[in-house]
Amino acid sequence: MANYLQDQRKVTTHRLAEMKQRGEKIAMLTAYDYSMARLIDEAGMDVILVGDSASNVMAGNMTTLPMTLDQMIYHAKSVVKGVKRALVVCDLPFGSYQGNSKEALASAVRIMKESHAEAVKMEGGSEIRESIERVLCAGIPVMGHLGLTPQSINKFGTYAVRAKEEAEANKLIEDARMLEEIGCFALVLEKIPATLASQVAKEVNIPVIGIGAGGGVDGQVLVMHDMLGINKGFSPRFLRRYADLSTIINDAVAHYIDDVKTSDFPNEKEQY
Q: Is residue 2 scored above 70 in pLDDT?
């Protein structure tokens, strides 16, 4: 058995820093409910992200913007109950922190108090510095998020790769340094050139987790529904499917329907 499966110690922000220092890659995956979070945690996951991607995969919305703070707290509370080892990070949803640092602090405090998550994630760089600093001053760990920031999709107008131009790449590097300087414990880089992501991971001392950012970073994150093949309508280049649960579930449900229709279920052993 691999060492990371034998190590049942609780993952903390400090342990993630140690993992980067010794070159151990960090595995991170999303979860939104108790049952899946328990399975993911038991498999040895390092970080579980309660992502506002719940808006897409759980609620059927086109973007992450509709998620409310109450909804994020509900999902995070459910996830935390199923987790013993992984560090649980919860997204601050759109509108709960941008442009108002007092509201940012109130939102983060609610997540920590009501869900018992262990950290929050916030999208953006210098534009939201004041909000991040206010949350950090309350002793709440913050994971940053740069590159493609889905909460700003209406500003970008596209989900295309970010920071391909020199000016945007330079700003991303500056923002990454700033996030480390003010005290973020880790950073997600989404859908940016692999060479740029690798450069950032080398220039900052905090762990850098990539999604569509190549292999030169300190860890990887994917959306659970995507990597398990539950959601088949999303197939970017960076996604590797580790299962085809969509087909498995469809076949199982069809089999159940057939057994009910033909009176095969329940049989004599399946009744009282």
A: no
